[in-house]
Design goal:
single chain, mainly alpha, Urease accessory protein UreF, globular
């Protein structure tokens, strides 16, 4: 059996990482730029008021995503890779079960469905079976179409490893909140980048501790996030969607 040329392997890896970087960008057109993950209410209520409290808030959001969304993503990714596509639906429903606020549910559904449509409309013909099936299920209402599971589908189709998409997803979560912070409070780009740089050990820790967890091990206990989300839902003045 002939070995695959090194250039081809490098090309596939570079292409996959480029797509992952594009997907993890908060400006990627799935709606992430329109949400603040509750930060708007947290700033208004004085819960987040400076770089220190913002750093704590971002760490909390990232930790919840790593212990909840990412566990479901890993399960969906591995199951779909083995051909068990029904587990995409199981994981998808599990993600939505853990979104306790209407804002969180709305965010994951709007972003997930937009990503699903983008995956389907930009797929190089012939459309991969996984993308076609996932798109059909979401469009028909057979499954909800949450963002984490749509993200896992994209990662699998694009040849992105689970370690890479775990990091990419959490980077996207963090950058979305930090981008919102620049519009909501007096903070500099340097301060937000310092916060982002300090997240690296946490992301590594989350992957190490959660990579073997099952759907039954998902956790989303973060009362502060639930409270500020409920306040944002009831607010009358807002810059971000609720």
């Amino acid at each position: 059996m002939e070995e695959e040329p090194l250039e081809d392997v490098a090309s596939v890896s570079i292409g996959s990482l480029f797509r992952l970087t594009q997907l993890s960008d908060s400006a990627f057109p799935v709606g992430g730029f329109s949400f603040s993950s509750g930060l708007e209410a947290a700033v208004a209520e004085g819960v987040v008021r400076d770089a220190l409290s913002l750093g704590d808030y971002v760490r909390c959001v990232v930790r919840v995503a790593g212990e909840c969304d990412c566990v479901a993503m890993l399960h969906a990714y591995r199951a779909a890779a083995e051909g068990y596509l029904d587990q995409l639906v199981v994981s998808d429903r599990r993600v939505l079960d853990f979104k306790t606020s209407a804002e969180a549910r709305g965010m994951t559904l709007k972003m997930g469905r937009r990503l699903t449509e983008l995956l389907h409309s930009t797929a190089t013909p012939p459309t991969p079976h996984l993308v076609e099936q996932w798109h059909r299920w979401v469009r028909s209402g057979h499954t909800f179409g949450t963002y984490p599971i749509a993200y896992a589908v994209a990662a699998l189709v694009w040849g992105v490893s689970e370690e890479e998409f775990f990091v990419g997803y959490l980077y996207g979560v963090a950058s979305s909140v930090l981008g919102a912070a620049l519009r909501l409070m007096r903070i500099t780009h340097v301060e937000t980048q310092q916060i982002a740089l300090r997240l690296a050990p946490l992301v590594e820790e989350l992957y190490t501790h959660n990579r073997h967890h099952t759907l039954e091990d998902m956790r989303s206990f973060a009362p502060m996030l639930d409270v500020v989300a409920s306040l944002h839902e009831k607010g009358t003045q807002r810059m971000f969607m609720n």
